[in-house]
Design goal:
It is a single chain. By secondary structure, the protein is of the alpha/beta class. Helix content is about 30%, strand content about 30%. It has helices at about 20-25, 60-65, 75-85, 135-145, 160, 175-180, 205-225; strands at about 10-15, 35, 40-45, 50-55, 70-75, 95-100, 105-110, 125-130, 150, 165-170, 185-190, 195-200. A seven-stranded mixed sheet has the order 2-3-4-1-5-12-6, sandwiched between helices. A five-stranded mixed sheet has the order 9-8-10-7-11. It starts with 7 loop residues before the first strand and ends with a helix. Bound molecules: phosphoribosyl ATP and zinc ion. The site of zinc ion has 3 residues, from loops.
């Protein structure tokens, strides 16, 4: 059961690529906060909208558990955890409510530069290193390919040089990291950017009104940005 609260709670990344732009976007919606000493919780001053500063990977779960009402997270993280829940037989627990126009990147397959790419069929029997096993596995199944998914939490691009994998499936923005590791992107699995995530169900009471107002302001702020 979700505790009844009359304040809205939004989870954002504590530090990392999305931390500052997420805060700036919420500030442009007229929100301001009194920061707590440990900077994990920021108490909303202008409106009863508080921030929880967390690892980005924790955001979908916090929404699913009802600990937070909304979150700002990369679509890649949201979709990976959604795919993982689906594989485990769970029902969807969060959804993308808005795309926010920052943190753009894509989840791509990248192979050694020396490979001549002939298409997905070439991947049969290979070892693919990734931090996105559920999205990769779902894509492989759609393509009808059986490959060995090697799950790594970081330093994915170095796996081929270490002999841990034949190729990688990782986030790419400029492509510089791939190039530095003599890899080239050959297929895009997901186009990503920061998104506003929320629960599948509706809010009730005071939080429904707050969420509605926040979305209205957010849409206004996004319109003037683009
Ligand atoms: O500590 P916490 O778990 O919260 O942070 P994190 O280290 O998991 O995440 P962080 O801050 O690195 O990224 C947060 C989000 O930013 C990601 O989930 C993406 O939605 C988005 N984003 C946008 C990126 C990139 N661009 C990106 N380029 N996330 C990671 N990268 C990495 C990529 O993994 C690769 O190692 O940057 C490298 C590639 O960059 P290029 O420019 O060389 O191609
Ligand atoms: Zn993370």
């Amino acid at each position: 059961a979700v505790e009844s609260r009359d304040r809205l709670r939004i989870a954002i990344q504590k530090s990392g690529r999305l931390a500052d732009p997420a805060r700036a976007l919420l500030a442009s919606c007229g929100l301001s906060w009194r920061e707590s000493r440990d900077r994990l919780f920021c108490y909303g001053e202008t409106l009863p909208v508080d921030l929880l500063l967390v690892r980005d990977d924790d955001i979908p779960g916090l929404i699913a558990d009802g600990v937070c009402d909304l979150g700002i997270v990369g679509r890649n993280v949201l979709e990976e955890q959604d795919a993982e829940r689906l594989r485990g037989g769970a029902t969807p627990a969060f959804r993308e409510m808005r795309s926010l126009g920052f943190g753009g990147c894509r989840l791509a397959l990248a192979v050694p530069e020396s490979w001549s790419w002939q298409g997905p069929a070439q991947l049969a029997g290979t070892r693919i290193a990734t931090s996105y096993p559920a999205l990769l596995q779902a894509w492989l199944e759609r393509e009808g390919i059986v490959a060995d998914v090697v799950t790594l939490s970081g330093s994915v691009e170095i796996a081929p040089r270490l002999g841990q994998a034949d190729l990688v499936c990782d986030l790419v923005s400029s492509g510089a990291t791939l190039a530095a590791n003599q890899l080239k992107p050959v297929a895009t699995l997901l186009e990503s950017e920061a998104v506003l995530a929320g629960p599948v169900g509706e809010f009730d009471g005071e939080r429904a009104l707050l969420a509605e107002m926040l979305l209205r302001r957010l849409d206004g702020a996004l319109r003037t940005r683009h």
